[in-house]
Amino acid sequence: MIAxxxxxxxxxxxxxxxxxxxxxxxxxxxxxxxxPSIKVREAGFGIDMNDVAAxxxxxDNKTLSAFKGVEGIARNLSVLLEKGVETxxxxxxxxxxxxxxxxxxxxxxxxxxxxxxEKKNILVKVTRDGYSQTVPKTDLVVGDVAHLFTGDYIPAxxxxxxxxxxxxxxxxxxxxxxxxxxxxxxxxxxxxxTVQDGKVxxxxxxxxxxxxxxxxxxxxxxxxxxxxxxxxxLNGVTTIIAKFGLVFAFLSFVVLMTRFLVEKTLHNEFRxxxxxxxxxxxxxxxxxxxxxVIAVPEGLxxxxxxxxxxxxxxxxxxxxxxxHLSACEAMGSASCICTDKxxxxxxxxxxxxxxWICEKSISLSGNSNGGNxxxxxSKSVLTVLLQSIFKNTNAEVVKGKGGKHSVLGTPTESALxxxxxxxxxxxxxxxxxxxxxxxxxxxxxxxxxxxLVSFPDGLYQAFCNGAPEVIVxxxxxxxxxxxxxxxxxxxxxxNVMGVVNAFACEALxxxxxxxxxxxxxxxxxxxxxxxxxxxxxxxxxxxxxxxVKNAVQTCIAAGITVRMITGDNIHTAIAIAKECGILxxxxxxxxxxxxxxxxxxxxxxxxxxxxxxxxxxxxxxHTLVTHLRKFGEVVAVTGDGTNDVPxxxxxxxxxxxxxxxxxxxxxxxxLVSKRDRLKQFGERPIERLxxxxxxxxxxKTYNMPGDDGA
Length: 710
What we know:
CATH superfamily of the largest domain: Calcium-transporting ATPase, cytoplasmic domain N
Strand content: 15-25%
Largest sheet: 9 strands, mixed
Structural class: alpha+beta
Number of helices: 27
Distance between the termini: 93 Å
Shape: elongated
CATH class of the largest domain: Alpha Beta
CATH architecture of the largest domain: 3-Layer(aba) Sandwich
């Protein structure tokens, strides 16, 4: 017995050694592949500043996994996640990884400077020396363990450690209004974004100018005052005129002096000089200077200014505000337009576009009251659909003045509630007829929203909606063409997934709705996860503004290339681009990560063919605009948020759309306007902006789209 015991102990010991050796081998392999700089190693760290920053900025899960996740990154940053950074190490960390200060252009006076300092005085809760404390965001260092809550501004790039129900608003970087779910599978947090919901503890991996926000700010410090095409031409004309004037002035002076000297010689007065002779020479110099002065067309700048002022007045009549006169001229020379999608080409308002219910696919496009759907289904099915819409949501319907209703919630939830109201549903009556027992909001892990409600008669009902692949697995019945609940057969399942695929091909956001009536024995302790009846498949889209397609075609006919650059996914971007007429045969649609991975030579080969760029970052947009300008293009860029600022700053013409988020974009007006490029649309969306482009034969006109599609 004792021998057996010691034999078992020996086997366990050998197994532990083998496991330890394997881990050391794997870890050694990683370390062999990656070696930090000598300075970093001497400071006691295991990863360079740029490398740890790139993991978050590139959302590089592969490299993060190679470092054994956030715990491995923490080890390489010499920090314990439970205790945080030691205060004594702060100077060393700032020396190696930098501080959390952003370098921008200096304020014009000391008082704006004080206001800027007060604005940046944001406090952040961190764990240091083993306990929680609050520090200014400028004191954050790489390795800090920061605690963020709903509404907090994310002050640095970092990696998710743990959190709860975390939603991040990345619209300031991507321009997309949909919140991003951050968790262990998508653990990257970027500076400049905000916590829309939930809470998170994160490991700071980059601060200051090393963050994504810092890189964005750095682009605003690049470049100088560029001249508009007209200014270049006027300078050329002025230079030529000045040269001719100088030549004629010199020749005139030479001729007059020659004549003067010849006359002096003929009258034998060459050696006799009088005061009148000096006066004559002075007059000759004055004549030469006068010729130089009158050669310069001093009336030309005034004439140009008056013509641009007239053009600005005409544009203002089209509900557009020109911030700098030179923008009027530059617009007439545009050869390329880089436009955003969300809010510019589209209405920035999600709507239900198609519904599959009772084995019928119903399109709601152009149907203002949903009458075709109400006539296609029975009253009982419509009642259950309205119950599922109004009960299973986090959004609210708010009564406004004049009896108008407004919806508060995420774009998707708002679209569903608008759809329910369109069908004649009563949000408040639906909420009052039952009591919420349990509610599970949408998170990326579950991909569904569920609710359990009880009625006065003691019965329970459960509703669930979410991703098709999740909801279908929870269902064993389906509503057939007659409105009855029947078993979900294999044939029915194939039919449903065919509908889902058809909706997906149209770039619709797809949700499946299901419900379950609970029997009298149900105790109401938890929301059921099976036994549901599939009710409907709903497709939601962000519709294109009226008139956009005609405007794009007019641009193309005028010789102007239109490119769409968006932070949305590639499939939606392609569908919208085809609908607008932007993506043509031979055109290229590319994703931002793929674009930024190309070499400069590959970029030069691809850029002329690029018509759509999806999943683009602000720096991707900036890079594209920079290369287009190097090709000799006069580039116009439309934007409505902070994410568009680098491209607006680099473009020849910046168009700040007065639709959504313009006030954020205008935070940088001082920087952009110094380059005489920003033209801001007024409070109302632009209805029509005529831009004239001169050609060899005639003047072409194209319209930029607005709310009314003019």
